[in-house]
Amino acid sequence: MRNRGLTLLLFAAGIFANGWATADDMKLLHSERSLYREVLVYEAGDVRCICFTRFCRIGRQTCQDVKQPDRIVMNYPQMMLGALFVKPEPKSVLIVGLGGGTIPRALREVVPQARIDVVEIDPAVVKVARRFFDLGDSSSVNVIEADGRVQVKRALRQQQRYDLIMLDAFDHEYIPEHLLTQEFLQEVKALLAPGGVLAANTFSSSRLYDHESTTYASVFPEFFNLKRENRVIIAANGPLPNEAQLRANSERFEKAFDSFGFSTRKLLPLFSRKQDWERGARILTDQYSPANLLNLGQK
User: Fold this and answer.
1) DSSP label at residue 142
2) DSSP strands (E only) in the chain
3) Which bin fits 10, alpha (ψ -120 to 50), beta or left (φ > 0)?
4) 71: Cβ contacts below 8 Å, ≥ 6 apart
């Protein structure tokens, strides 16, 4: 397997050093120990972030500009919203992982016709999103406190289908192992309506990259690979649009995305179909999913 040279800890250290603030600049606004993790809210200058480690040593979950709360600060939510270039008029959306609620708040503005369900396992995160990140208590965003995989299985039993599913669940280290496997992705695909779209937030550099890629490719043979600091995978339960269709769909969101502080024109070049992973890498399954070991650089 090709060595991508960055473990989770090194990747996170780069985010901390280059992306936001030093420890001396960070003011702690809130701290609590939940059943699942430590939930902290820091502020540095005009930027407020939720983190799951002290001084955000291992990345930031969500950040918001407190003076311009509609501006989307981090790159990964921008790329996740690029899923609308593939499915511009979703009537139903499922988001696994809430964080500070940036993505559901943005979707509420750009696709107000959509029913938005958000699954978050940690009640403390829901409370923080409402109190510190303007999620509010709107009927247009239905927050379900449950494990993401349990909720996917429940929705399948209830014969629900979604036009757009977004996977954005992280703990203090990485994506929980049971949300990385082939079986889980098969369940997610079964939950997609015909022509439905999946967007998944992952890392662009880690020893899991090849394994993740082959796992997604085993369920979705072709997908878009968008990269900045993170990697966002966008797949479909059906054929992917061509470049002209992507461009035409993106034009519908130019004004809205400008109001969020980023350009559709800068997102479009990120839509790559290039397979840049080792195709022989072992697929992650419920029986084989050593995600934490791989991310920590162990063999």
Assistant:
1) E
2) 27-33, 38-44, 47-51, 62-65, 92-96, 115-120, 141-145, 162-167, 192-203, 224-227, 230-236
3) alpha
4) 65, 260, 261
Give the Cα separation of 70 and 58 in Å (integer).
25
168 is catalytic: yes
Token look-up 């939940």 returns 34
Q: What is the pLDDT of residues 76-126, one digit of tens each?
A: 999 999 999 999 999 999 999 999 999 999 999 999 999 999 999 999 999
> 200 CB contacts (<8 Å, ≥6 apart)?
166, 167, 168, 216, 232, 233, 234, 235
193, pLDDT greater than 90: yes
pTM, 2 dp: 0.89
Among the listed residues 195, 193, 271, the one whose alpha carbon sits nearest the alpha carbon of residue 232: 271
Which tokens is 169 given?
């669940």
> Cα separations (Å) of 52 from 31, 41, 58, 111, 155?
10, 9, 8, 30, 28
How far apart (Å, rounded) are the C-alpha atoms in residues 187 and 1?
A: 28
Write down the catalytic residue from 168, 210, 258, 286: 168
Q: How far is CA 215 from CA 130, 132, 140, 245, in A?
A: 34, 36, 33, 27
User: Tokens 């063999």 sit at which residue?
Assistant: 299
Per-residue pLDDT reduced to its tens digit, 152-182: 999 999 999 999 999 999 876 789 999 999 9
